[in-house]
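Researcher: Last one for today. Full complex below.
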Amino acid sequence: MTAPPPGSGAARHPLPPELIHDLRTPLTQILGYSEMLIEQAVEAGHHGYVADLRKVNAAGHRLLALIEKNLQPVPPPDAPPAAAAPQTRPGT
Amino acid sequence: MTKILLVEDNEMNRDMLSRRLERRGYRVVLATDGQSGVDMAASEAPDLVLMDMSLPVVDGWEATRRLKAAPATRDIPVIALTAHAMSSDREKALQAGCDEYDTKPIELPRLLAKMEALLGGGPGRTAPAAEAPR
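Model: Here's the assembly. Have a good evening.
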């Protein structure tokens, strides 16, 4: 059976919560820095950069939407129910 | 000036969010682990704490419990920030004593609205009215 393509909305793929967490962390930085740079470019009158920075930001939002639409955090099948809760792992 | 304590161990997250808040007129002080966050909350007396949950030394849940157990810091509002997005995460943060919860990636207008709602409710705590250019 072939899995539906990402973005089709046909199914959400189960993944360990930590992996989804680790995907969202660099997206936090991509979106945050790009939004800040857009603000600064607008303020400084660097309009030539704004359009490209908006593309970076929009791509980050598209990736986040794909993650939220297609990936579902689930604990390992042999894990106790408490494993569904996030485990503490510094650095993110 | 409203003082925010940002407890975040990830360097890029810390740099990015602190700069974005400073651009809006907040004064931001930084801690990089939960125990430092508890210590700085006591020494800096911030108006609000932004608490990452996955922290070294002492995690964000335990740090929040310690803040809320100490008379000197228990009235400081705490907003939990986490890249986990499961429905149980919010409940877990609130049970630890957090006053609010927000997810990463940060939607800054949403986070600012939550911050200002909490800051506006306390005596002597006023949110910055306008964005300050950096």
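Chain B has one domain: 3-119. Residues 127-134 of chain B have pLDDT under 50 and may be disordered.
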